Amino acid sequence: MNRLHRYLPATVWLKDYTRTDMQTDMMASVIVTIMLIPQSLAYAMLAGLPPAVGLYASILPLVAYALFGSSRTLAVGPVAVVSMMTGTAALQFAAPNTAEYLAIVILLAAISGLFLLLLGLFKLGFLANLLSHPVISGFISASAILIALGQVKHLLGIQASGRNLIDMMTTLWSNLSQTNFDTVLIGVSAVLALYLLRQHFKSILIMFGLSDHHAQLASKAGPVLVVVIMTLIVAAFQLNTEGVKVVGDVPSGFPPLALPKMDFQMAMDLLPAAILISIVGFVESVSVAQSFAAKRRQSIDPNQELVGLGAANLSSAFSGGFPVTGGFSRSVVSFDAGAKTPMTGVFTALLILLTLSFLTGAFYYLPKAVLAATIIVAVVQLIDLKSFIHIWRYSKQDVSALLATFFMVLFVGVEAGIITGVSLSLILFLWHASHPHIAVVGRVPGTEHFRNVERFQVETNCEVLTVRIDESLFFANARMLEDKINQLVSEQKQVKDVVLMCTAVNMIDASALESLEMICARLQSTDIRLHLSEVKGPVMDRLKGSAFISHLSGEIYLTQNQAFEALCHQEG
Amino acid sequence: MNRLHRYLPATVWLKDYTRTDMQTDMMASVIVTIMLIPQSLAYAMLAGLPPAVGLYASILPLVAYALFGSSRTLAVGPVAVVSMMTGTAALQFAAPNTAEYLAIVILLAAISGLFLLLLGLFKLGFLANLLSHPVISGFISASAILIALGQVKHLLGIQASGRNLIDMMTTLWSNLSQTNFDTVLIGVSAVLALYLLRQHFKSILIMFGLSDHHAQLASKAGPVLVVVIMTLIVAAFQLNTEGVKVVGDVPSGFPPLALPKMDFQMAMDLLPAAILISIVGFVESVSVAQSFAAKRRQSIDPNQELVGLGAANLSSAFSGGFPVTGGFSRSVVSFDAGAKTPMTGVFTALLILLTLSFLTGAFYYLPKAVLAATIIVAVVQLIDLKSFIHIWRYSKQDVSALLATFFMVLFVGVEAGIITGVSLSLILFLWHASHPHIAVVGRVPGTEHFRNVERFQVETNCEVLTVRIDESLFFANARMLEDKINQLVSEQKQVKDVVLMCTAVNMIDASALESLEMICARLQSTDIRLHLSEVKGPVMDRLKGSAFISHLSGEIYLTQNQAFEALCHQEG
């Protein structure tokens, strides 16, 4: 039964599910649905897909996540960054709005789902840690700019495409003469309206007497209001005949249930993109889930989150959808609307299914410029200037990883940006670990404390050299330790004993062990003994059986003071 | 003047160079030359090159290293593993013993030299730390097997080739019927003779009355003796007319000085191989240099070593040679022969130049099977079973990196092996860092010490949760800390204060800082305060200006005991 709980978290909360829970969850699902429908249509457009695909991706994935996900609050579905990455990846292999393009996107969701599932089952979620915060921040900011810029064509009613800033600007510029002014009027007013509503709608609602909580909730309906009004205007004036592009016919009925077409070569070609989409989606999703879990003093299991998101993506692929993940804004709405359990997701899926069955006609006159406006207003907030300033102040190394990612995404592409950022983070970390703080220490007179000789007035002995290493010893700094000890001993010719003080050494890997053996042997060849002091318990446990300890020329002292006392008296 | 010393280490020792130094250096160079000549011929053959190229690579590079290298003892020139890597890389683009092949190899030396030089000038030597000890060990063992197997064709007098074990075995097997029995006889007796000499020659020489030191030195001439005797036998019986392949004509005269032919596309294609050759060569060389520096209480500067090796490879390229690096066995000979300064290298270069000018005729009858035998006997020792056993006992994680590298090199190729090994080391390290030891601690009664609640009987307070993290906080474990604190707080509902005890935190990067801010904000949303205790000086210095400290809901305590006292009394 415990295993069932672990692999199917839904069994935990379903057990205690009450009628009251059901009522609040249903209420919340109505609000989430109202918000999710225009988002789904917009993000499908962003990924270069027919609008219906966005709705398909908002049905089964929600149910799958409700069953397998570990967060009680997370709302999954299409999100901006993942949709853009999907579009960019698919564009390399087919033209948008073709059958091949759709097949590729579905395959992408399938591979991505499978990859997430495998990561989860093998508990490899830690691999997502490769994406450091500066890399994510730079990536999201640059993606937001690319997404916003990619939607400008819809605001102007022209054709344009491109995978990076320069391509996009060039194609936009060369088609600028074809601008449709009705479209511009609608698009720009939608952007302004959305922007103003976002800023002031809540206060206006409060002025009209709504409570803070209700105003907060109702304000989320603002974008929907703009979408409805603009659609009505286009319908009333038949602006679609004047060149304003509209969503048009959306096929009604159930999502097409089918296995994705397996094309092994294509799957291999898509793998790198699928891996990046999965990891970016997972990282975004898990941080949203963590925020909400903390608010309710719940906890989430990152590996189970991988399983949940994997199941969501696989079911998206099986029902003609595209890659999905947990979204921040819809999770906020769901949480604020009082959603108690993941059943909210199931109810939302049912409501979207109903919409797809009976209400697709309502989207006919919805102008694409308005969808573009909702995307632009949503993503502009993702541009993360605050993190940039914080990181800039805190660490020049971290900010360089952020900037490298940002500019690579903007000027080369999404994949190049992430790979650059991750490589740079690793190299900078390695640089840091390769240059550990190593101090020669001496005893503070009258105490048993040992401090850096360069910072404090301490007692030393010219025949005993004590070195404190402020880092775990592993392959990145093993060789540096050899250099450093060599150098110190070559500078201080009378030394007869070297003591390594290991207070901050949390681990010694095989490379470092080999280096310690080398250090010991080299010191011994010039009649210097090597000692250790203050070795931590777990480190000592592993050292015990090793050849290093049996060949060690000196002693292992419990405390540095014991080492100092013993060696100085010996020499004396 | 100090700058000159740094960039041209030769200026330091040349200043005090005496006539006595010169005499010992000259003596040593004679012994090194005798050993180096057959090695140079053999390693040129191993790289698929004409024998003369091996001699070219043993002239100017020695002079360049003497000027720019920081080790007083290192002897550079062609070495087995680098020669094999060179051959493997060149084989992808041309057939051995053609003009294109030679041009490619020279270009490889040039790129490799340039790369090493740049690494050195930009002080990027730490990047070599990516090669952990287990990866190097697995790589060298597998390479030794490939090299030995690659020489079997010369022992049998047949044709064979291949980049990995299976290719080699297959081509050997299919050509086995063409075996030349005279060649086998010579080759196998050479292997046996070399093996026995290596084991027993020194003791025999001591029996004949030589001192230990002189026997040690003379024993290094053993292989040369075998080479000379076998050459005489072939010449006497004219075995070259019976199908025994010999070195044949070696063009006499100076090495051809010329700029390498620049072919940008080819240079790009060769770059990955050149980078691996450079790094492997550097890692081998620097560890040899370190061993000898330690014996004389000297120290070496890894970045200056890069400059020295870079200069050596560039000058190899300019004089028709192939990639070189510091060799272990010849450095041992040089050291044992009493070489005092790098001038030994200059004298050796002169002697090889003399050989090339006047003695090339002596190599005519030298059988290739004997060169193959010297290679085989030399590389078989590189198979590092001892390290494997040590690492196996010490760490299953590290041994998996070793085995992955070993089998990938053997069955796929050198480059795939190194890339797999490095990636696996990084992933395993990341796994380790992502799962830091995090302990809930309490106070040992009657003391100010705090210990793991699971291991010790300690005092705790149900409203104060103290967590000790035994690792620096950075991107690899930042998210894990969020999970862990979330989970602990969700399990212990009365908690009002969380204290992070930072004794072992040597660094907090921007990702971890962001996570700490998130943790603080989430805890605050459920009215829990976050405190820090025992933050190290350098870590605190950087934290001071950050937003995290200004938003911190709790206090920063100097000691954990102060934190515990203050918070428990507050609650009480």
Automatic annotation (TrEMBL), chains A, B:
Residues 454-567 form the STAS domain. Its main location: membrane. InterPro entries: SLC26A/SulP_dom (IPR011547), SLC26A/SulP_fam (IPR001902), STAS_dom (IPR002645), STAS_dom_sf (IPR036513). Keywords: Membrane, Transmembrane, Transmembrane helix. It is a multi-pass membrane protein. The chain crosses the membrane at residues 26-46, 52-68, 75-95, 101-122, 134-156, 176-197, 217-239, 270-289, 344-364, 370-389, 401-431. It is found in: Membrane. SUPFAM superfamilies: SpoIIaa-like. NCBIfam families: sulP. This is Sulfate transporter/MT1781.
